[in-house]
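User: Predict structure, ligand magnesium ion.
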Amino acid sequence: MKVFKFGGTSLGTPERFGKIPGLLSGEEKKIVVLSAISGTTDQLVRINACLAQEDKQGAGTVVNELERFYSKFIYSLFDWTPFYNQARLFVETRILRLRGLLERSFVREVENEILAQGELLSTGLFRCLLLARGEDFLYLYAPDILHKNTEGQPDMEYLRRALSKSITQNPATTLFITQGFICSNSHGKLDTLGRGGSDFTASLIGAALEVDEIQIWTDVDGVHNNDPRWVEETRPIPELSYDEADELAYFGAKVLHPACVFPAKQRNIPIRIKNTLNPEAPGTLVHEGRKGSSIKAVAVKGGITAVRIRSARMLMAYGFLRKVFEIFERYETPIDMISTSEVSVSLTIDDNSSLGQIVQELKELGVVEVDENQTIVCVVGDFMAEKPGMVRIVLNALREIPVRMISYGGSMNNVSLLLHEQDKDKALRALHHHLFLNREIHVN
Ligand code: ADP
Ligand code: ASP
Ligand code: MG
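Assistant: Predicted complex:
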């Protein structure tokens, strides 16, 4: 059994969407997880932003845009009846539901239901497409099988039991389809796994059923050695260890959701990243596999804030760091990088929503400085297998760029550097040329 996840980019045009069933041939059982069609969740987020400001008219305009988009989409996807009519009825019903939600008072429940519409639309249309092709399949409503517990974590045992039941009750069915990203919370209400969370859904399902492989289908030939949105001449990486993939996903390689490697790693299930636009390409295989092939990739995570706390009280004292961390914990704000000296500690966060309160409390411990608009650049690979001096090569590549913070040694898989946002492009290109193209470039 395998899990196939198709991202929004793979579903983004009627041509691409129409090709997905062709990628699912063979007798082996498959669970297919679909994201929303690309751009839809962004539109739904816009609707919520309008509603949060009581701008119902603005929200209505976005719903109209979605209606136009989906009407055109199904017109080219189902250019024949009766399946076109079925798809049209389905889209009309969902848009009507969305309009109905605009009339409700804007509470978390409504916000989540609006966000869920993208995956409900894509899986509903996929269902019509499979019916049109006469395929045998079973449609699973993700919030029925994927529940969060009271701590907000996925209930793996429930997921395993629910999926196993559907599979054993339908022994002849080989194709199961469901939504990524959406689930239900511990009160039984619709909830989500956060932006980009369909990869996580696929990994959770794969782990729950201990499948042979989890395939993440996207619009690039696997995980590249640098972010193709910022750097030219990037290359797909044939193999990554779980730890390397985890670091890359965590530090910004958008191709994988940060949470998606862990469930697969726990069960030792390979993840293969494939390109819907070029299915023949081997893609990237993430597995325990052989290590020791040096520096693999560079990733970048923007929108970072650095906080430095200076205090003479830290000198030779214990308990200081605990007090600092407790403040971040109280405001549920994760810390990415940390670096300490005798009298100060610097750390970074990517969620600024409680920054004001955090700084207020930190001021009781010492002098606080905040730098916004920072970027983490992360170099990932197997540093243990490297010849001595690899960190020097990284720093040498960046010698013309001011580095605010360095983190190395937390794992043997990454060196992370904090830079100002304005130096991001230069840094990425300089690292790429030094590490992968063996060319020197002067960046200033
Ligand atoms: P999907 O819709 O399939 O979930 P995403 O947009 O979430 O796709 O992720 C794929 C995109 O991630 C690629 O189009 C690419 O621009 C971006 N990306 C960022 N870093 C990397 C990387 N290291 N390797 C490959 N793609 C990357
Ligand atoms: N549709 C959701 C998003 O855009 C989830 C996903 O695509 O993985 O964030
Ligand atoms: Mg994605």
